[in-house]
Specification:
This protein has 83 residues and is an all-beta fold. The protein has strands at 2-3, 12-21, 26-36, 43-44, 60-67, 73-81.
Length: 83
């Protein structure tokens, strides 16, 4: 979910997961999902689409990004999946 005070002005966006690798001490690419949204949207709820299942398969620390069509970060969060 992304909530903004203003319209995002985006059409093609991506949700990307990077998972923390404790052996290397770095985040590594994990998964990415493509979505289409309307430019006037301020609130977007991302869920499973026909092509993919947006879920975390393993416990761990993840960086989650909302990226625009140029792969620039619009929003991000750091989360921990426990189980």
């Amino acid at each position: 979910m992304v909530k903004s005070a203003y319209a995002l002005n985006l059409r093609s966006v991506y949700i990307q997961f990077d998972k923390y690798n404790f052996r290397t001490g770095k985040f590594e690419y994990y998964k990415r999902f493509d979505y289409r949204i309307e430019p006037d949207m301020k609130y977007v709820y991302f869920s499973k689409n026909d092509e993919s299942d947006m879920r975390f398969d393993d416990p761990g620390f993840y960086r989650v990004f909302l990226l625009d069509s140029d792969e620039k970060t619009v929003a991000s969060a750091l989360i921990e999946i426990i189980d």
